[in-house]
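ok trying again, last paste got cut off:
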Amino acid sequence: MRNSIIIAVMGHVKHGKTSLVRTLTGAELNRHPEEKRRGLTINPGHAVLRLSCGREIFFVDLPGHQEYLHNAIRGLWGIDAAILVVAADEGVMPQTREHLSIVRLLGIPKVIVALTKTDRVDDELLVMAEEETRGLIFTSPYKNARMIRFSSRTGLGKDELINAVEDVFNRLPSPDPDRPFMMAIDHVFYKDGHGTVVTGSITSGIIGVDDEVEIYPSGIKDRIRLIQAGHETKKAVTAGMRAGINLSGIRHYQIKPGDLLGTPGKICLGRFINTELHVQDDIKRPIKNNSAVRLFLGTKSYICKIVIIERRDAIMPGEKALVQLRLREQAAALPFSPFIVSGLSPEEVLGGGRVLEMTNRKWRTRHQEGLDLLDALARGCIEEIIIALLKARPLSVITLDEFAISSGYPIRLVINAILSLYKDNKIIKISNGFYLYKRFHILKKTAADEIRAYHKLYPANDGMPIEMLRARFKDLPVQLIDTLIADMILRRTIKKTDNFLSLAGFKPQLGADIKVLTKKVMAIAEKSSIMPVTFHSMLDLLKIDEKQLSDAIRYLIKQGMLVRVYKNRGGNREEFMTPDALDIIKERVAQHILKNGRLTLEDAKGLFPLGRRIINILDYLDSISFTLNKGNAGRVLYPRPVFVERNRQVHSVPSDTDGS
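nice, full thing came through this time. structure:
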């Protein structure tokens, strides 16, 4: 149940708006000397009425003069309902119509009509004024609006008007506490002993003392020191209230009227606004593509350009169309925030709508996926919005927070929609985000095709290096590719061997030329016996391409027909020998150690006249745990595990027989 609402009091100049608010609340709103001198409202005035039940009504008194139209539009930001004031002695006037059209464009759900100055006219004129006013609202969404005769002099209609306002509480939904907090700032000042104070109407969420807030679009963060609403100190305030908020650290000159105060990181930023623009049906000429207009968003106005997204050159009066509003500076808003556009000169209201998407990407006709997203946002179905967001951002894994910020829905509703879509196999979870199920399976097919193509190109290799596959999908998030590979391995579509990926059932196959080459390589290695043969020496002998030789050697090593005993750090020198030749060396080394207790480098050079290459072989024997290098004491056989035979006698392979 709502405990507070904001109601705008609007209408033509000098129709009694300020007097009506004074009668209801007792507040004197025209405080500025110029307002007192001219007897009209220049800037929106604010007052609060507290009902006996504890509910609060925050009134915003709007300027009625055409000269201050921009101030009136700013004052309408964040209101829940409106009182349209029509003076009985003048009836419907130009600003009456204009204010009503602005309220309609902003999507304000409730309007009450107050027929003021009834004490100045006779019954005949009063009935005429009522009929004229009823004719005005009959063609609007407010044709059933309650109309109340009112006089600030006699008090006629005061109680009836308060009852009508109280009824608004029951007809409006309660504000959602899970939505981000947002307040458009309309005034900034410094107060001695307190510091910076900002005021505005709260349009979304809830905020309390000591909570952290962010100033948009500057990005400055601060904490709330004190809150007042309706001249009373509050621990927290919520949507439907006007508040003065004392910030703890920021300087007043770092904030400007028109900035937003909101939950950190939860409000969208962008220079471009994608939206559905509803054009007034009484404007004098169509809105052409690339027209310059004034945008009213929150409590700030911007000069911007209208770019029509749909394939048309103009929007006719009374029509609506998807457009991109291109600003010269960053703006901030929650999705579905209302806005108004007007001409530059004269300042005529042209249309309005609600923000669908804030972006920094200019619209191009090729961005069809963006059009699908705007259609989904305009319809407001959260499941459709989530799917459209994923389609519009195919290179991203989108988190719950990102869905909530982009869609404008509270996180709990996003979670419910995600669960439903996940159950229907429309999305898949990737780490802490989500991705389209169909697109994920297309990626799996693409990955399998990449591996298949690699097998065709390199049939002798174990498979495609994992990093090579990742490089093929370099524009996609790492967690998405890792999940993709893991899923394909789990479903046995592919298998992983060391750092290589191959299709299930794949076996390396040698071409006829490689088979011939492997025989030649083996002939060279066997002829060399215990003298390791180098890669480059074989290359010189065979006069072939390096890749062909690498493929042949890799195959022979995998088949256990060749052993790489040395590879330097730079990778430009490799030495190979056959397993039989290596066994000869191992046998001689073992016999020498068993007989002498150790093998020194000099001993090894005497046993194997291989020059410095014996050092590489000894290091290789250490690396496979055949020998153990004890430095200056020489090498011993690597200790073997103790084992027990059936007769319970304990045996072990001898090593280091002298106990050193």
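cool. The longest helix spans residues 437-457. The CA atoms of residues 455 and 470 lie 16 Å apart.
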